[in-house]
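Aim 2 progress update. The chain analyzed this quarter is reproduced below.
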Amino acid sequence: LTVSARDGGGLPSTTNAAVTVNILQSGSAPAIFERSRYTFSVPEDTPEDSPVGTVKAREPPNSLEVVSYRISSGDPHGRFSIDPQFGIIRTKTQLDHESQSVVVLTVQSQLGNSPVYSSTQVNISVIDINDNPPVFLTHSDRVTISHTQPPGTAVYIAHAEDKDSGLNGAIKYSIASKQSNAFSIDPNLGVVNLTRTVFADKQQEYTLHIAAEDSGIPPLTSSLMFDSLAVKIVILDINDNSPSFMSSPLSYVMEDVEVGFLVYRIMAKDPDEGRNGQVTYHILSGNENKAFVLDKITGLLTTAQLLDREIQRCYNLTVMALDDGSPALSATQVLTIVVLDVNDETPVFLKQLYEAAVRENQDPGEFVLKVEAVDRDAGPNSLLRYEILPGPGYEKFKMNPHSGELITTTSLDRETQECFSIKGSPSRSSTAQLYLTVLDENDHNPMLAKTQYQISVREDLEEGSAILDLFASDKDDGLNGEVMYSLIDDTFGAFAIDSVTGSIVTTKALDRETKSQYTFRAVASDCSTHLPRSTTVMTILIQDVNDNVPKFEQSYYKASVWEGQSPKTDIIQVFATDLDSGLNGETEYSILSGNENATFLIDSARGILATNTVLDHENTSSYREMASSHRLVLLASDCGTPSLNSTATVLITVLDVNDNPPVFSSPEYHIHVKESIPVGSHVTEVSANDCDAGTNAEITYAIISGNDRGHFHLDGKTGSVDLMKTLDYEDTMKFTLIIQAT
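Predicted structure tokens:
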């Protein structure tokens, strides 16, 4: 038997118990316990060998055997013993309520040496004794609070544990030693609260010793020195002062200084303590071109790049001094840095970088852009001449030396080279960067990596799963090169494609038995109006999962076989079909039950059921429903992992062969009658039995000798013998009739 347990809330046990019941043939009755369940209680500090309780089983009436007792289960640690003669249960070892509060024993009684026994359940409650003091999980802790916290603020929660139960485990908290009346503790919850503000206190740190006591009798308390909890409460400074600048808001620097030159030192002070008084420096605005670097710790301001007074004569930097408090406080100052002039005038372009775009596939001479430079000098030195400096692709362009106009010298192809970076220079020393972009024409189709794909996926793939990410490349740019994906054939609602990413996903649950293969086309096209595109053929093969149970053609079969047939005689062939493929669809047959003594066997592959022994119609056996039939349960299992199966029932009737002669109930019948009985009187009745069945068991009776004068008549069907003539004792004292049963 398999026994499961379930509590009052409906939660089942994690494991089941296997119970084996052996049925013994015994004529003796067991000794029965007076109660089916005993309940005792014992304190956990009870000494060893102390009595707990007594169980009693009564022997059957008139029994001379002695009842003995033993503990059969429920005490794996040997905490209890039982007097085998009197049934007194005693403690065997020291008990502990905290490790086991309830013990459930099964006690058996046995009458003498009889194999039959009875059992009772003994529930022993181990009563808790206050033997465990409260214990703090940690002996010290540290918390920080702001000195502006109001009275009633919870600053700490103390927690101790007591292994005892009930009142023995109920804990009360108290402050055993404290340096101030600023704190109190909730005795039940252990919450430490402020009783007043500490704003005016000069003391910045408090240490509270918290003790825990249980509610047992007598109560147990955590020791002050060893088991109490020392809580250090630190009062934090409040950030109530902003930094203030000490340095001047004006500084000067020459325009030809090197990168990294120290320009100025910014200084600010904050009277707060600790992190509240630590100041860092930051540039908020005015340094958009990254000309300066400010060390946030030291306040040192240095150049990050070369300065040019002709570009920018002064800088107005908004500088912030920020403390590290929470919330942080700050102050700002506008620092003006004046750049002093050096004689370095040269021609300069109006822009350092020129950008333009030109269409590809245009004839030579196409206008691209015009550059322009200025020189602050006067006279001939201000007359400018433009030229292109040698570089990659510069031969494809020509610049007018006087106007600065740039034109093409050949037809351009964006796919060959999309961008050109050209330097133009006036006759002295200034240079400008020309960045030219060739505009795209939609002259390339999207290209998929393959013209066809074959993918295998499992049929139990979840809906929405990605099976393939298509990727197509398009050499064009912009909308001409943005690829969109789509499906143009019927996928029977099973697949869809993300138009942007090309990810093909399932849109419903797949079933190989319904459809094992999908073939459709995927298209990649760009977003231009001409819609160039490329196509690939998708073949999706659905892999089989063992999700179909083998099914017999019939759930119930009937078959018959003549008794006496030789072993291996075929009786019936059963068939089971499995819609799965491969090993998942291969079916094996076996006999699940009803085949006691291995009377039958089945071909595991073909499902042919045959005899394994010579059958006897007349033989009776406990496993058969009737003397002439066998009921077998057949199992059809597939070869998948895990294997699935189904069952069918076969009723096999063993047909009778006339192989048993009739047998009289008695070899001789002795009948005494009076000579005066009237003719027609019933004399006796003979009976015979034939183990065969049907017509083979129908018996006919006949007198074959001893009735020469016809005194008696025998009914051939019933075996009834009647008197046909008057008897005369003086004539014949005895008749011997020979009767035959056929």
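The CA atoms of residues 193 and 721 lie 116 Å apart. Confidence is low (pLDDT under 50) at residues 620-627. These observations will guide the mutagenesis experiments scheduled for the next reporting period.
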